Amino acid sequence: MPANDVDRADKKLMRAQASAASGSNDIIELSLYARSQKIYPRQVHGIFAVLRVTAILLLLGIFYHLPWLEWNGRQAVLFDLPARKFYLFGLTIWPQDFFYLAFLLIIAALSLFFFTALAGRLWCGYACPQTVWTEAMLFIERIVEGSRIQQMRLDQSPLTWHKFVIKATKHSIWLVFSAYTGYAFVSYFTPAPELAHRLLAFNLGPWETFWVMFYGALTYGNAGWIREQFCIYMCPYARFQSAMFDDNTLTIFYDEKRGEARGSRRRGADYRSTGLGDCIDCTMCVQVCPTGIDIRDGLQYECIGCSACIDVCDDVMEQMDYPKGLIRYTTQNAMNGNQTRIIRPRVIIYGLLLLLFIILFGYSLGQRIPIGIDVIRDRNQLYRETAGLIENVYTLKILNMDDKQHAYTLAADGIRKIVLLLDTENIIVDAGKILDLPVRLRADEAVLSSRSTTVMFTLTAMDKDGLTITKNARFIGPIR
């Protein structure tokens, strides 16, 4: 809840308690939920604003353009759910490889812990989807409705044809932008060119239509209407972020010792003699805040770390010929005059764990063999006798997880003088395909030492060194 809403609620509660103590019968209405008021964040310029806009443009560019990027004749990033294959550039992830996705999720979580312990809510202020798309919606709103003051005057004015046209234009652009966002999201699951062709032909499937509309509506509602309310009331990260903070975490602070007491003054005036601090109480830091808080009231969970207040305060300090940094990135220890340790045990632990999982992920990826083989015995009969030999029948499911076609050789071992029989001379599997290969093994009954013997099938690529895999199976014979 914003600080001013808290103050109003506290005052109402105090009046209620005073009324009860005095025996008054006056009815006082108390609200347990602060009614949302639209926030009009002022546009800000500065180093952090440049960094934030750069991050937003980069992330939006990646999201909207990545589905159109080709890699070896196919879409670079495609989650092909019907075929149960995920394409990530040169990597094809099959259901057998889903532990790689677990690796990526662990790396993402550790990255969040590491950067939060180091410098607070960098994710929220610069890379969170809610922040990114909200900033895009705010940009459209400024283009259509004008500056902060113009937006406030427009909303307070009575409904006229001019106001209706402006509002309709803004929401139309929002809806088109949201719909394209939904289309871009679905294009990660259906190839983008195919999806575009079917969309233009009004031939989308029911699930594709649902997800385009659902994700578009989600973007329109969250980024266009809910905005900061999502961060304040719905986002769980704001609640548990304090568990990753300590007195050495870099975050945004208002220097109360330097800034208080607040008060307006003329530029160049001797404000120190009147007991004033450097804060001129211009409230610019509140006007630029996307969540509507006053950073001068101290660190609050609603703060998303966007640093807009730092940029605007530095600009005001420069105009007043005061030193910059009244609002700045610093630590609680530094604010208290104590020594700050940016590199500390928790940062080292998070960093080492993050590095360890990145190395393990890279090593596992480097050692990955893009070939799979499953052996299925014939269930119709355990074995059959042929010319004095015991024969077992198998079906080998050969999976080529590489992005190129390969030709293979197959060998069997585990029993002396075992004979491998194939119905084909060439074993060729296309990229990303599965080949069902019938196989027969024959062995002399005299060499079988038990009813069940382990045999090994070894599949080796003829056109790529090191591409080989071995799979065990059971060879069943008569009871001796």
Please explain how this structure is put together.
The chain is α+β, with helices and mostly antiparallel strands and 480 residues long. The chain has three domains: 1-35, no CATH class; 36-368, no CATH class; 371-476, Immunoglobulins (Immunoglobulin-like), CATH 2.60.40.10. It is built from 16 helices and 16 strands. The protein has helices at residues 3-22, 47-65, 99-119, 122-126, 129-145, 148-156, 161-186, 192-200, 206-226, 228-234, 237-240, 256-259, 284-287, 308-319, 332-335, 345-367, and strands at residues 70-71, 74-75, 77-80, 85-88, 91-93, 251-254, 327-330, 371-377, 384-386, 389-400, 406-413, 419-422, 427-429, 434-444, 452-461, 468-476. The strands form five sheets. Strands 8, 9, 10, 12 and 14 form a five-stranded antiparallel β-sheet that branches. Strands 13-11-15-16 form a four-stranded antiparallel β-sheet, with no helix packed on it. Helix 5 runs antiparallel to helix 7 and helix 7 crosses helix 9 (206-226). It is elongated. The N and C termini lie far apart (81 Å). The model is unreliable at 1-13 (pLDDT under 50).
Topology readout:
Elements: H1 3-22, H2 47-65, E1 70-71, E2 74-75, E3 77-80, E4 85-88, E5 91-93, H3 99-119, H4 122-126, H5 129-145, H6 148-156, H7 161-186, H8 192-200, H9 206-226, H10 228-234, H11 237-240, E6 251-254, H12 256-259, H13 284-287, H14 308-319, E7 327-330, H15 332-335, H16 345-367, E8 371-377, E9 384-386, E10 389-400, E11 406-413, E12 419-422, E13 427-429, E14 434-444, E15 452-461, E16 468-476
Antiparallel strand pairs: 1-2, 3-4, 4-5, 6-7, 8-10, 9-10, 10-14, 11-13, 11-15, 12-14, 15-16
